[in-house]
Design goal:
Layout lengths: L1 E9 L4 E8 L2 H10 L2 E8 L5 E3 L7 E3 H16 L4 H9 L5 H9 L1
Antiparallel strand pairs: 1-2, 1-3, 4-5
Helix pairs in contact: 2-3, 3-4
Length: 106
């Protein structure tokens, strides 16, 4: 399911915006109308295969990179490595520069 960002107007003239999940744009438009909203703009937010991380800019991290990171983090934690040490190890582990920067921020 895709994530869509929308701007709409309520019956009382109030302008609202937000995000909503849906299979496609037409279904999102129907859901918004069903909520009493009159959509002005509806755009798909995420590119396929990418995940946004709130508060870390507009860049995207590939889902497969997040999956590999999560598995490796679990293995390190299960082996008794502290979380701080595991993040430090993985931050130097050959992930993209963007992902390494996110790990350093953590």
């Amino acid at each position: 399911m895709a994530l869509f960002r929308y701007q709409a107007i309520r019956d009382n003239g109030e302008r609202v915006s937000g995000t909503i999940e849906g299979e496609d744009r037409s279904l999102v438009l129907s859901r918004l109308s069903g909520q009493g909203l009159h959509p002005i703009e509806v755009k798909e937010q995420d590119a396929p295969g990418a995940t946004a991380l709130p508060g870390l800019g507009t860049g995207r991290l590939a889902e497969n990179e997040i999956t590999v990171f999560t598995r490796q983090l679990a293995w390190l934690i299960e082996s008794g490595t502290t979380l701080n040490r595991a993040l430090d190890i993985l931050g130097r582990d050959g992930f993209s520069k963007r992902f390494s920067a996110v790990l350093a921020a953590l």
